[in-house]
Structures are given as structure tokens and as C-alpha cells.
Amino acid sequence: MTISTSDKPFLTRVKESENDHFMQQSVAKAQDAQWDKRTAAREELGNWEQWRDLGEQIRQHVIKYLPDYLEQFSDNVEKKGGHVFFAQTDEQAVNYIKKIAKEKKAHRIVKSKSMVTTEINLDKALLSLPETSIMETDLAEFILQEDNWDEPTHIVFPTLHKNRDQIQNVFKKLGYSGSNDPEEMAKFARKYLREYFMQADLGITGCNFAIADNGMINLVTNEGNADLTMAIPKTQIVVMGMERIVPSLKEAEVLDNMLSRSAVGQKLTSYCSFSGPQVNGESDGPTDFHVVILDNGRSNALGTDFEPVLQCIRCGACLNVCPIYRHIGGHGYGSIYPGPIGAVLSPVLDGYEKFGDLPFASSLCAACTETCPVRIPLHQLLIKHRKVMMDKLKMDHSFNNVLMKGAGVATSSPILFKIALEGAHMGSAPLSKSKETSVDNLFNYGHIEKAPSIASGWTDVRDLARPPKHSDDFRSWYKKHKKEQQEGVSHD
Amino acid sequence: MTNSNREIFLDKIATKAGRPRHQLKNHPFVPINDLPESTLAGKSQDELLELAQKNSEAVHVTFEKTNRSSLSALLNDFLSAKDINNLILPTCDKWTTFGLSDWENKLVDSAEFWAPESSRTENLAKANAADGAIGFADYLLAESGTITVATTPGQGRGFHFLPTHYLSIIPKSHILSRSRQAMRKYEAAITSGRLTTSNINFITGPSNSGDIEMVLVVGVHGPLDMTYVVVEDL
Amino acid sequence: MKVAIFSTCVVDLLFPNVGQAMVEVLERIGCETSLPTNQVCCGQPTYNSGYHKESNKVFYNEIDALLSTDADYIVGPAGSCVAMLRQYPHILKDNPDYSKKAQELADKSYEFSQFVYNILGVVDAGAQLDAVATYHRSCHMTRLLGEKTAPFALLDNVKDLKMVPLPHLENCCGFGGTFSVKEPEISKQMVDEKVDSIISTGARVLISADASCLMNIGGRFSRRNENIKIMHIAEVLNHNVDASRIRYKNQPTTV
């Protein structure tokens, strides 16, 4: 399993992100631009909440009957002369693909963007084959590859963290002598990749949706590289997560619309293709067509609270609205699946030991849940992960368990709370400052700049209001207020 | 043989989910609403044309309206405006329908054709060398400015992606409101046997990418520009 | 109309001014208030941190306490805490003792401004405040409680108050309950961006319907030594009130 993108501890990654100003600025800029585009595209469609109902229904339905749909799909692929391989693990998937590459004597492999092939670390495995070269043909993935296989930071915009100058330097190594203008650099990539494409003998793609009732696969892109990958080489291997399936072309069409609007704010992306092995009379397209259906930890979600994570259509909208992602970026998460969906999915695929930090890296603001086109309750699933870690696995997650359990006792007991109210002002005396603050009407009873224990996280960043004397607190005021009211009434 | 591992795989996920296999027959998918059908429903062909133009231009498409008699002149204008020297055309029986038989005949020597009898390598090389393609679309979707094409022996996959400039001809009667209507047509054609194809492309404007600093650049792998020509009297 | 005050632990512990303003506004509009004494906390701190077993006792206590007085409605000065009460029926749906009570509680619980605007139908609370202010929209109030209109509508009618829109209204302030304490490194960056956004508006007063967000943002303002006045929306609606100006929905303006 290689969804991990870093061996560094979570806090180190957060610190590195904080110092990466270009990354932070470009993420913020991307989020803001996408916010407007996405909102406009959804409003233009109209009835967005009802479209979400439909999207959720389609995805929940196929997850519920997943084995049946996969069976139907694989039957239909084989009817068309294709082959289907079911892989429980990344290793099985990689071995199968290597076997096909060897059988076909593939020397030049083209790939179109696929998160699932990144997940199984396919590129490096194929490069180990003798006399084999491989080319990522999505512009962003191509840049990452040529930059010594840098890790992606977004599931839709993998190079969000790189600026044009860095990309220009990457291209210089390939003989590029032009400016840092994105258009000029893209033209260079077009020419460079086209030459490679025309010689390619094996194409590897991902799959947005597999069409159960006709065995086609659906790919949604903007550049056209996926279509060249499916047109030119004689052999095509499709790698798909086992949950990426729909009943028919009709549901694929619904989800393509929702995906395009959610991912990039377009009504449809430039290319939505529905494709299978070449049929008689056609001259291009794959004569040899393989689909690898991958579990690789996805089934851990089945039958659990986390099943809704399999509804995901990988639009990345939750990343684009997430205030945490905005600041720590993709590398902060340390998983190829970052952002809210990554914080839910990564521990499901690869466990809490590696990704237990991620569910806590959320303010539970629910922007993700609100934007998800297929209604995955993302922030609630984050709470469920926390529950598994605390209640079930008894992990002591940098937060002091004794203290938090104490908080549970204290906040369930009116008597203890009353004692707290009575003692809070005096108890905070040694910590409090009476010095002036720049803020009016928040620190009416003083403030605290350095608090002990679990509250130190608070005062590391901000001042804390000091509790009022018990006689000045709300409960005491209310008692007096009621008494005055009653006396007032009796005076009348 | 490839499916020797299938049963183990499917049994495992059924067990993990706690739901038995083979339940779908009694629980087919029934959509909870008809938005895909009802959205933009009931529009006249004129309204669809207007919508199609607006939405195509919004995705950087050059949108032309013409009629059968003026079509060839418009195509010639396109060839000279784009300075096209290596044209590729499809092999199909639509030329007569569109009143282009003479126009096509004149180009037989100078243009290349995606030919059913040619090999993969030959057809792909022709398309790759072409700086222009003129092809026929099955449908045009008004909502998104999308042309749809099913791969045929005479108009292969590479035809739509390899040339530099691309022009697509669509009869006005083939403008549909949305992707759902196109899907219904394709499903019906495939089921009835009228259409045998390995591939259906929905193409919305020229190839583009925002991968470098999210700056939109046009023409990364596919055509650099797109022209749609709607023939109003067909 | 009888209203039980859901005071919230934050207001009980730290901000008497907020609770007081809320009670005064409600009583002015004709509500008869009560304050259930055994209430402590909605349980979010422990529940959202994953300590679900410990949280159940907190929920039971809060449900019993808030339902202990005879009231038509339960009203609190915090969108987030009220959203938590509204989640009780879902969390406790399989609990034979509490599922019904949880539903009863959820059905009559409202955040202060949504109660005033949607239930009481008040559009102008009669308040006056001569200030330039901006409003911070709390995430839970907006997304979990689904209340996007009430506070804006009420503030729009405060006499002499100039409301300036806050850029990036949609972004969380970085409070997130225990998140602010547990992940200060990330929380700091979020609250800094929020502080910067507020400063960019030129507003001198920051208003919100969630005391916890205000505690976070105001605390950061103070640490950065930037000037701002913090006001809960109840305090604004309770400021310089001229009761003759109180106006209800569907009521023709007489002036």
C-alpha cells in the first residue's frame, strides 16, 4: 500500500506547509476561483439539492448491490472480448499488469491520469521491466513525473503546489527553451508527448465509471490524453477501484454532469468518453482490452459506518472548500488522497497507525458535507473515526484521555458544574492579566495569556477570557433578575 | 479463465457487507426523480439552436449556422481561414445528404480519408499529420455545447483527437437538449442493432488544461480549436 | 409564550452579558423565560472528540434538564450548541429511554436569532447601534442548523448600524471546539486569515450568533493587539432599544 506520500510526522508536515507560501497562496486562489465557478455551474443547472439526491441514490444503490453489478459488468466486458481481473491487493494488481505488459512485449507505455494507479504505485513497478519506458500524459502528472516523481497534492489538480517557474525548470531538462508562459509550456508538452504517443504500444487508464449493463468504461477529462491513450495503443489496461460502477449509460451521464460541475465548474468536461475494445471494421482502439478491478482495502468500509465513503466520485470539491486543506495543502495530509475525503478514506484503506492524525485535522465545519455532490456525510465520518480510535481502540491521541473523560464526567454533572462556576474566577486568578487588551467587550473580567494543561493549545494562539466572579455570572444575574421581576409584579 | 478469481472476490465483499449476492433482479435501480429527463424539456428546435449557440460559444467554440446549399462555401472558408494544407475527412455516406458530394469529389486527391480498409498505423498517421479535420457529429447538446460521436469504421477515434483544427457538421434536427436524450438515442440504437460501436465521445469545445497555476490553456492534446456548423434545413 | 433558556456552558462560564441580553430581548418581545438549573453542556466537546460512551451521560443530563421546565420552546445563544441538540435524535435513535425525549427536545430547540426571526416573526427588534460592523457566520449554525437568513435580516434593521460584508464568509474561523486546543498550529492559520478578512472590511464591531467563535476570533485579535469590539447578536439587538420600533413580519410599516 503506497497511498502515503511522506514519512515525516504530521506536525512536521503542517509546519512545512505553513512555510510554503506559494503553495498556500495557490491553494487559496484555486479554492476561491473554484468556489465561484462551481456555484455558478450548479445554480445554472437548477434544483441542485434534488440532483444531489439522485447522485446519492445512484451511488448508494450500486454500493448496496456491488457484487451483482461487478458480476454483470465483467460478464459484459468478456462478451465484448475483453478480460477482467479481480485484484484483492495492490500486489496482485501490479503483478497482473506486469504480466500483460511482458506478454505484449510493451516497450512504450502511455498512461492517463489515474489516482488508483498512483495508489498501487504502478509506474515504478512497470519501470522495473527491462526495455520499458512509461509516460504520464496528463499535463500535471507529466510534470510530476519529470520532476523526479514528485507526489500529487490534489486529486483533480495534482500540481497545485507548483508555480510556473518551477515547471519551466522541469521542462528545461527536456530541452525546453521557451518562457514560463503556461500556454507556451503546454504547447511544448503537447509536441513532446504526441511523439511518444504515436509510438505507444500499451495504454493504461483509470476509470471514472464502469457501465455494468454494457461493459464500457467512462472517462472524463479535459485534455484529450485519455482518448489518445484509448485510441493509439493496441492494448489497453483499465485500472478501477471496485466501487466505481454504475448500472447503465444513463446513470453515468448523470454523474458526469455532477462531476464536471463539482470538480471544475464546467457543464461537461471537454471529453466524456464511453469506451471498450475495438469492434469489427474499426482500425484504432484496443484490440486487447483488460480491466483490473481493485479492492485494496476498500472492502474495509463495507458493512461499517464508513460505507458512504465508497460513494465518492473523486470530484475534489471537498478539498476545494476545506479550510484545513487551504492551509496545510495536499502534502500536509501525507496521503495521495488529501482533504476531507482523504481524511476519511486514508484510514479506511491503510489504518489508524499511519493515518490516525487525519480525522483530528478538522474543525468539523461541514463545508465538505455541504458541497459533496453525492451527499457523503464527511464531517460525521471524521467523528466516527475519532470514535473508533477513542472508544474502541483506546488510542491516546495526543489529547489526554483522563482529562477528556474527566470532561465527560464534569459536563454530565450539574453539581460538579456548579462547583466549577463558583470556583472558576478564583481558580483563574494566578493566570490572569489585568493589562489592557485591544479587544472591547470580550474580556470584561480579565484575560489569560498562558493557560496550563489542555488549555495551553488555546493560549498558544489566543487570549482566553477570564471567568467572572460567581456573583457576576449569568446564573446569578438570572436569579436576581427573576427575583426583581417577581417583586416588580407584586409592587404593581 | 481470467475470472477464476472473480467468485472469491465477489463472495468476500458480499460477506463483508453482510448482504447476500444476486439480489439485483428484485431491486433494479429506479431513480427517485426525473430531473435528467425534465431539465430543459419541451424546448422547440429553434430554442435549442439558440441555447446551443450560446453554450458552445461559452466554451470557446466557433459556432456557424448555414444551410445545405451554402455549406460547401463555408467549409472552403474554414480551410482557408485556418490555412489547412493536410485535411482529413471521414469515409461515410453522409456527403450526399449534406449536398457535399461534389465538394468531396474535388478533394479526393488532395485530402486524406480515414479509411476502413487502411491499417491502424496508416489511419493514425494520417490523422496525426492532419492540420484540419472535417467530420460529422451524431448530435449536438444544447445545454453544454457538446457534440457527440460514435466511432465508426470510417471515422475512428483518433480522427477527433489528433488533428490541429477541427470542424463538426450537425443537422439542426439533431440538436438535443441534454446528455440524457443523447444517451437514450445511443442505447436504443445499440440495443436494436442499428449501431455497432466500441466508443462514444462527448466532446465539449477544444482540449484544455488548468494544470499550470490554474491558468486555462487551450489545446493540450486534442484539437486547438473547434468549429461547429449547424445545417438549418436538415 | 414560555421559553426555557438553554444557556450553554460557554455563556454560563464566561459571558454573562450574552445570556443577559438574550433574556432581555426575549422578554421584551413577550416571552416568559425560565432557566433550567441542572443544564450543563450539550456534549459536543467530548462527542466530537470521539468519546462517545462518556458523552451519553452528558446528553441524558442535558435532555432531562432542558425538558424539566414547562416551556413551549428552548432557545440558546449559540447556533453550534443548538445544532447539537438537534442531532440528539439521530445519535440516540436506538436508545429506548431517550429516543423520544431527544426528539421532543430537538423539535422545540432554536438558536436565538432564528427563534426571534422565524418563530416570533420579528424583523426589527427596535435596537439602535451607531457602528460599522461585520458578521461572522458560524459553520454549524449555517450548515448543520441550516440557518442562513435570520441574523442578517435582523441586523439589517438595526438603526444606524452599517453592516459590511465579510470576505470569505464561508470559511471556518478555526475554532472547531477541541480542534482549537488540539491542533493549534492549523487553527492559528485559520483564525489569522479570519482576523485579516475582518480587518479588511474596516468594521469596528464583529458580530456573531456563536459566542465560541467570537471567543476564538476575539482572542486572536487581542493576541495580535488589533482593535475590535466583540458583540453577540443578542447584545446588538438589545442595544438602545426603542420598543415602539419593534416590527413583525407581514406588519405594514406605519411611518
**Distance between the terminal alpha carbons of chain A, to the nearest Å?**
78 Å
Please state how the strands of the largest beta sheet of chain A are arranged side by side. Answer: 1-10-7-4-2-3
Largest sheet of chain B: 6 strands, parallel
Largest interface: A-B, 106 and 89 residues
Q: Could you name the CATH topology of chain B? A: Rossmann fold
CATH superfamily of chain B: NagB/RpiA/CoA transferase-like
Structural classification of chain A? alpha/beta
CATH-derived architecture of chain B: 3-Layer(aba) Sandwich
Segments of chain A where pLDDT lies below 50 for 5+ residues? none
Q: What can be said about the biggest beta sheet of chain A?
A: 6 strands, parallel
The helix-and-strand class of chain B reads alpha/beta
The CATH top-level class label of the largest domain in chain A:
Alpha Beta
Organism (chain B): Liquorilactobacillus mali KCTC 3596 = DSM 20444
Pfam family, one (chain B): LUD_dom
Protein name (chain B): LUD domain-containing protein
Domain LUD (chain B): 51-231
Write structural notes for this entry.
The complex is a heterotrimer of chains A (492), B (234) and C (255). Chain A folds into two domains: 10-300, 3-Layer(aba) Sandwich (Rossmann fold); 424-491, no CATH class. Helices cover 50% and strands 11% of the residues of chain A. Chain A has helices at 10-19, 21-45, 48-64, 66-79, 90-103, 115-119, 122-127, 139-146, 164-172, 182-198, 225-231, 249-264, 317-321, 323-333, 339-350, 352-355, 367-371, 378-392, 401-410, 414-427, 456-459, 474-491; strands at residues 83-87, 108-111, 133-136, 202-205, 209-211, 217-221, 235-241, 245-246, 271-275, 288-294, 432-433, 439-440, 447-448, 464-465. In chain A, a hairpin with a 5-residue loop joins β5 and β6 (217-221). Chain B has a single domain (43-231), classed as NagB/RpiA/CoA transferase-like (Rossmann fold). Chain B contains nine helices and twelve strands. Chain B has helices at residues 6-17, 35-38, 45-58, 71-81, 94-97, 101-107, 120-129, 157-161, 179-192, and strands at 61-66, 87-90, 112-114, 132-136, 139-141, 146-150, 165-171, 175-176, 199-203, 208-209, 217-218, 225-231. The model of chain B has no long low-confidence stretch (mean pLDDT 95). Chain C has 255 residues and is of the alpha/beta class. Chain C has a four-stranded parallel β-sheet, with helices on both faces. In chain C, α12 links the parallel β8 (205-208) and β9 (228-232). The longest helix of chain C is centred in the C-terminal third of the chain and has 18 residues, at 184-201. The interface between A and B is large, with 106 and 89 residues. Chain B: InterPro entries: FTHF_cligase-like_sf, LUD_dom, NagB/RpiA_transferase-like. Chain B: This is LUD domain-containing protein. Chain B: Residues 51-231 form the LUD domain. Chain B: It comes from Liquorilactobacillus mali KCTC 3596 = DSM 20444.
